Amino acid sequence: MLRRRLCSIFNASVRTQLIATPPPPSPVPFRTLRFVQFLKPRLRSDEGFGFGGLRAYSLLSLNDLRGKVPRKQKTRKGRGIGSGKGKTAGRGHKGQKARGSGRLGFEGGQTPLRRRLPKRGFKNPFSLTFQPVGLGKIAKLINEGKIDSHELITMKTLKDTGAVGKQIKDGVRLMGRGADQIKWPIHLEVSRVTVRAKAAVEAAGGSVRRVYYNKLGFQALLKPEWFEKKGRLLPKAARPPPKQKDKVDSIGRLPAPTKPIPFSVEGKESALITRHCRLSLKLDAAGFARARLRTPTALLAPSSGRHQSARLPSSALRFDSLLWSGLAWSGLLFATDQAASSIAR
């Protein structure tokens, strides 16, 4: 760079000598100065050939500062055609390579690496999340007087007293933590219960029942005031799906009950319901056979005599007998239901 600057100074001096008409003055002796460079002459027509009137500059300037390690200067693209990398900046016209880069992980359409790798596990959409509560916490709330041990402890009771959090998703699971603190009989209705917790409660003379609520029924159990505010009736209790019948003991009751249901009464009731269902199936089959035969019925005159009953085929006679027995069983079932309701109250 020093040589280039000296050459520019010399060329300027030669041009000055050719333009000037008067004789050149005596030349100024050139002295080499340490760390000084003669850069720019005073281009005047009255000066002759030489280095007179030059200004001295330091060899150090900001554009001359460099590190010891040589580095390649970065090419600035898209700054005009004079730079050689303007307009298309060396990418050419159109095409995928002339445009921006694709999204992270895109491999041109083939299966990306994140999908080629092996997969582990999955998310079960049918999984149920139960909030756990220990027997020790329930015993502590009973000792504090927040829970009455003489009444039925439901999931609404546990939520209102703070035994479980307010964000209950699918139900409550009773755990055996602090089982040695249960010294008196208590009756609970929860969604799930562990073997240790059930054994501890039954050893103290209490009972634990696993009840089923669907999402709407569970909301009606925990927040019945919401339905009253909207002017709606409480929904009816829903039956459990077939895959959960072995995991529950009974259908949840609405509104929240205050007294437990004895297991003995429920066993008789379930047996009556099963018998009634079987009888209904038989009645449906007999009724279909009677409608197909198109015979008169002896329903209005069950004791009209053998001469009228003899006119009917055997299938119609079976239908009449099953119908009367079905009515009798329905009355018995209604009476049993009323008795169970009075006991629960």
From TrEMBL:
Similarity comment: Belongs to the universal ribosomal protein uL15 family.
Protein name: Ribosomal protein
Key words of the record: Ribonucleoprotein, Ribosomal protein
Keyword Amino-acid biosynthesis among UniProt keywords: no
SUPFAM superfamilies, per the entry: Ribosomal proteins L15p and L18e
MF-aspect GO terms: mRNA binding; structural constituent of ribosome
Region: Disordered, residue numbers: 68-118
Positions with biased composition (Basic residues): 68-79, 88-97
Record-level GO BP terms: translation
Keyword presence, Ribonucleoprotein: yes
Segments forming domain Large ribosomal subunit protein uL15/eL18: 132-208
GO cellular component term of the entry, any: mitochondrial large ribosomal subunit
Top-level taxon of origin: Eukaryota
Family matches, as InterPro entries: Ribosomal_uL15, Ribosomal_uL15/eL18, Ribosomal_uL15/eL18_sf, Ribosomal_uL15_bac-type
Any Pfam family: Ribosomal_L27A
